[in-house]
Amino acid sequence: MEDEEYREPENQSQWTLLPDLVIEKIFSYLTMRERYYASMVCRRWHHAFYLPYAWYIFSFDETTLTRRRFNYYSGWQFTLDHLRAQLCLTTVGRNFRVLVFKPMTNFYNMYEFMNMISYYAEQQGADRVTVKGIGAKVKTLRYTFPCNMLARSESQQASRLYGTGGEESFIFQ
């Protein structure tokens, strides 16, 4: 057995032979969870998980980088897992160009995530511990107001946008 060479199966697909640019473009369309599962296909796709364009747009929603925690008052909740967020920011955070905050009910998770990004951005080069470049290339921040989460129809939605000047989302560049 040890003398025999390992042979690739003849009917194996050629997905591993795709160029990095194509894989990177495919990864940019996937969610974070889908990227993670796709990165376990082969070594080339694992390498593509960390390519810059795959993380050009980072979407943060209700369950991104969270874990479930039981609260006696309101039941199961998703709370930001600071270890996951720190690992995400240190490995791919320097590739973020656009941050998208989707409507969510738990603003504390968004607040904590923004605190982590701002800490890394403020500590650029201040010490030898923090990773350089996190948040430095962010050019656009998109935030959608969750005012219309309870609206049943579009006519109700238009009347529920209080304090936003009629805008549902803001884009800061």
From TrEMBL:
Q: Which InterPro entries match?
A: F-box-like_dom_sf (IPR036047), F-box_dom (IPR001810)
Q: Which residues cross the membrane?
A: none
User: Pfam families under this entry?
Assistant: F-box-like (PF12937)
UniProt-recorded name of the protein: F-box domain-containing protein
Organism of origin: Rhodnius prolixus (Triatomid bug)
